[in-house]
Design goal:
341 residues; alpha+beta; 5-stranded mixed β-sheet; two-stranded antiparallel sheet; 12 helices; 62% helix
């Protein structure tokens, strides 16, 4: 890099020297004309013109040589010697050299990050939690041991889940672990109720996008029940219609005003370019729409645009989020019929 920069410097210094020489000759010629010595001025002008023509011819020849070198496969010594001239015809040479250095540094950084990630992998986390749980059991700290075991299960489902789809039963089990962890934090403030008898054995077989229910329950706790002074309840109810399977997640938290609900629905159903920009603390509950929009979009990608989330809420009463998915009889029309059920 420094070698190429020095070649650039010498090249432009020589151009400047020739320009100063030509300018000096022309100034002297002008002074000679003013002094009445026309013969000397004519000689100086001829000399300047000759130098300019020779310099132009040399520069043209070198540039032609550089152009040929750029398009040929000559030896590396000539390429190094004239690479700075090739740059005059191709500005990307110098920029490309910089990109190569930048790419190399990025690869090194990525390799370091991968090394760190490989050291802090999920198995390391699970083994560490299991060791802590074992020590807790040895000290007869059963509550701590249970909490650590629940946390490990939650991490295992969230981190190590490689499948893009899970059964409703698996999703519900993950929700139970999540609520159990939250109750350790908030001293059993939350109650989770399930009313799924109408679905029969369907939760064991019906497939849906992984991590669909837990973000909704998390949203209900964080935005609906945490601000509530008294304990709160989350009800998950499931039932079938002629064409849809519906899961309702209802909380009896603080709820939302009609304006907040309208803003949240706009963020959920409109595209990213059309959704209104929301400042913190204004409109819908800050951050509430991000997770819900993600779930809504994944449901539509998985089942089709006719399905997704529906939201109702009332201030002081609570919020209900309804997951609409195709009934088993309608799965043939779904985008993922061959693997969703």
């Amino acid at each position: 890099m420094n070698h190429i920069r020095s070649l650039y410097g010498r090249f432009f210094l020589r151009i400047m020297a020739v320009c100063f020489l030509l300018a000096g000759l022309l100034f002297v010629a002008a002074a000679s004309i003013r002094a009445g010595n026309s013969q000397l001025s004519v000689c100086l002008i001829l000399i300047a013109a000759t130098v300019l023509l020779l310099f132009s011819a040399i520069l043209l020849a070198v540039l032609i040589r550089a152009a040929r070198l750029r398009n040929s496969s000559e030896n590396s010594q000539n390429e190094t010697r004239l690479s700075f001239l090739t740059d005059l015809l191709n500005d990307e040479h110098y920029l490309g050299y910089s990109r190569q250095e930048l790419a190399s540094e990025m690869l090194k950084t990525q390799a370091q990050m991968n090394s760190l990630q490989s050291q802090i992998n999920p198995h390391f986390l699970y083994n560490t939690l299991e060791s802590i749980r074992s020590k807790a059991l040895l000290r007869d700290e059963e509550e701590i041991a249970t909490m650590i075991e629940t946390l490990a299960r939650l991490f295992r489902y969230n981190i190590s889940q490689r499948n893009t789809e899970s059964s409703i039963l698996d999703e519900l089990e993950n929700v139970k672990n999540y609520v159990r962890i939250q109750n350790y934090r908030f001293r059993d403030k939350f109650t989770l109720k399930l009313e799924l008898d109408d679905l029969g054995e369907l939760p064991e077989n019906y497939m849906m996008p992984t991590l669909t229910l837990q973000p909704i329950v998390e949203n209900a706790i964080h935005h609906g029940l945490e601000p509530k002074i008294s304990p709160g309840t989350i009800l998950i109810r499931g039932f079938l219609t002629q064409s849809k399977l519906i899961l309702q997640i209802r909380d009896d938290g603080v709820g939302m005003s009609s304006d907040q609900l309208d803003t949240l629905r706009a963020r959920l159903f409109q595209s990213d370019d059309l959704a209104p920009v929301q400042k913190e603390g204004e409109g819908a509950r800050h951050g509430a729409g991000i997770a819900l929009k993600n779930v809504h979009q994944r449901l539509q990608l998985f089942f089709g645009p006719a399905y997704g989330l529906e939201i109702t809420s009332a201030a002081g009463i609570g919020t209900q989020i309804e997951l609409c998915m195709p009934a088993p009889s309608e799965m043939r029309d779904s985008y993922h019929a061959e693997r969703a059920f």
